[in-house]
Amino acid sequence: MMPIGMSRAGSRASAPAGGCPFSDDWCADHFDHVSPDLAQNLHETLGYMRAHHPVAHSEEHGGFWVVSRYEDVLRVAQD
């Protein structure tokens, strides 16, 4: 698990504006749905994801897609 605000290379990355405590890189490429830090910041992080990364591919846990907007989730589920 990568600490909040850390980039994949381990250097400190700035957290995006809007109340999301995670770096933009974490949201776009390293989203970890089992992170204890995510559980404490779920609403802020998902709000940021909906606005900036509505569909993202995480490299964690072998790789998976994250779809965060309701309309997109419906389209995926109905496809």
Description:
The protein is α+β, with helices and mostly antiparallel strands and 79 residues long. The protein has a two-stranded antiparallel ribbon. The chain has four helices and two strands, in the order αααββα. The longest helix is centred in the middle third of the chain and has 11 residues, at 42-52.
Structural class: alpha+beta
Q: What does the largest sheet look like?
A: 2 strands, antiparallel
Helix count from the secondary structure assignment: 4
Percentage of β-strand residues: 5-15%
> Helix share of residues?
25-40%
List keywords for this structure.
4 helices; two-stranded antiparallel ribbon; alpha+beta; 79 residues
Short description:
By secondary structure, the protein is an alpha+beta fold.
Could you give the topology of this structure?
Layout: H1 24-29, H2 36-40, H3 42-52, E1 55-58, E2 64-67, H4 70-78
Antiparallel strand pairs: 1-2
